[in-house]
Amino acid sequence: MNILILGSGGREHALAWAVKQNPKCDRLIVAPGNAGISMLAECADLEIMDAAAVVTFAEENAVDFVIVGPEAPLAAGVADALRAAGILTFGPSAEAARLEASKGFTKEICDAAKAPTAGYARFTDKSAATDYVRIQGAPIVVKADGLAAGKGVIVAMTVEEALAALDDMFGGEFGAAGAEVVIEEFMEGEEASLFVLCDGTNVLAVGTAQDHKRVGDGDTGPNTGGMGAYSPAPVLSDAVLEQAMDQIVRPTVAEMARRGTPFQGVLYAGLMIRDGQARLVEYNVRFGDPECQVLMMRLGAQAFDLIHACAEGRLGEMKVNWADDHALTVVMAAEGYPGAYAKGSQIRGLEELPEDSSHMVFHAGTAERDGSVIASGGRVLNVTARGTTLADARDEAYAMVDAIDWPGGFCRRDIGWRAL
Ligand code: AMP
Ligand code: GLY
User: Fold this and answer.
1) Over 80: is that where the pLDDT of 178 sits?
2) CATH architecture assignment, domain 2-93
3) pLDDT tens digits for range 322-341
4) Most buried by CB count within 10 Å: which residue of 53, 318, 327, 406?
């Protein structure tokens, strides 16, 4: 089979790594890819937000199956265009991708599905939103409705912070994404992520993970795209997982189907768990990054069979073969991230690292220059290892981190601390 993966991050490197191990994969193309991906797949220079260009490319290259990595092309209808052209595609329609692209829409679906989530109100008018914040008090959570690259959520510990967030959002800081604002009850508890394949009708949980959103050790400093992750997430015990599937995921998938906009792809449920009960924080309509890296390391080649069956509507006949193990990934980022950072610093020592089913450095923002790997983004490497215990996985991952010679980079030293 000829397979095309869209994206260029650590998530797509991990997907490509898993897909490549499956004997059904003949030719693997990743667009646009990165320096690490180019070591195992063909990389193609393609504008992945341009649906027509993606369809033409897939037709010209006799692509049998497309896997869409990030949310932006999904929200822009790239999966719709591919399916309309008769090309098998993993990833939701633009309508179903609203579960990530509109926080107000997700709340509407939760109401219809009776899925437990934070209490909320939606506003398009600043003075009404201001009154609401003053009445509710703090802590309170202010969210831009649309996609804002992970920056559109302000967890305000004071009323002043919440009002400042409203100033920013209604002042146009987030563009069209902030034209509507959702204000939510602040939920306490422990966060974890649940990843569920959905073929429109059937659902299959493929793993749990915990991310580390803050840039600094001990969960301090500004929010990032994620500084490290591990799987499984112990807080998502079998009982909590079943409750989340029964009360949140299945009713959501049923409601989407009932509306004539079935969800096909991976539904990533961000959950807040307290007293053994999960409530929905948010949905994403794609694999998490870096959560995907630990999921792929644990699933290996079967990940492709699961994703392929999902796209073909055959999930009902699939089972996940769980290894009783743990995986952990440490994100190495360019000094300065998530603020301004320099590009172009050289990374040495990658060739000497082990590369097998339990050790892998997935590349995110890297490029190749004169035969060397250089940093070309904020989050740059995902140093990933698997172990029989989480502590083993962590020790293996940090041993690899310590063997990488990259003076321009940094990482958190405490990935996994919550579970350990
Ligand atoms: P989101 O982009 O919706 O994932 O929000 C980013 C982060 O903000 C989440 O991962 C949570 O840590 C936090 N957050 C969002 N909504 C709430 C809420 N209602 N209560 C507490 N924390 C929240
Ligand atoms: N790591 C968080 C996300 O992918 O949204």
Assistant:
1) no
2) 3-Layer(aba) Sandwich (3.40)
3) 888 999 999 999 999 999 99
4) 327
Residue nearest to atom 4 of ligand 1 (CA): 282
Q: Which of 105, 140, 141 to mutate to test the pocket of ligand 1 (most atoms within 8 A of CB)?
A: 141
Q: Which ligand is nearest to the CA of 279?
A: 1
Q: How far is the CA of 155 from the centre of ligand 1 (A)?
A: 7
Instruction: Summarize the confidence of residues 303-331 as an average pLDDT.
Output: 96
Query: Is the minimum distance from the CB of 100 to ligand 2 under 6 angstroms?
Result: no
Ligand nearest the Cα atom of residue 184: 1
Residue keyed to tokens 């003053």: 134
Domain range 190-317, CATH class: alpha beta
CA 187 to ligand 1 center in whole angstroms: 8
Domain ranges of the chain: 2-93, 119-185, 190-317, 326-410
Q: Give tens-digit pLDDT for 47-59.
A: 999 999 999 999 9
Question: What's at 309, amino acid-wise?
Answer: A
Q: Whole-angstrom Cα distance, residue 380 to residue 363? A: 6
199 lines ligand 2 (CB under 6 A): no
Ligand 1 atom closest to Cα of residue 103: 3
Pick from 100, 194, 289, 295 the residue to mutate for probing ligand 2's pocket: most ligand atoms within 8 Å of its CB: 289
> How would CATH label the architecture of 326-410?
Alpha-Beta Complex (3.90)
Residue with tokens 């006949």: 317
Buried b or exposed e, range 244-279, using 16+ CB within 10 angstroms: bbebbbbbbbbbbeeeebbbbbbbbbebbbeeeebb
Point out the ligand nearest to the CA of residue 145.
1
Q: Which residues contact 29 (CB under 8 A, 6 or more apart)?
A: 2, 3, 4, 5, 41, 42, 43, 44, 61, 63
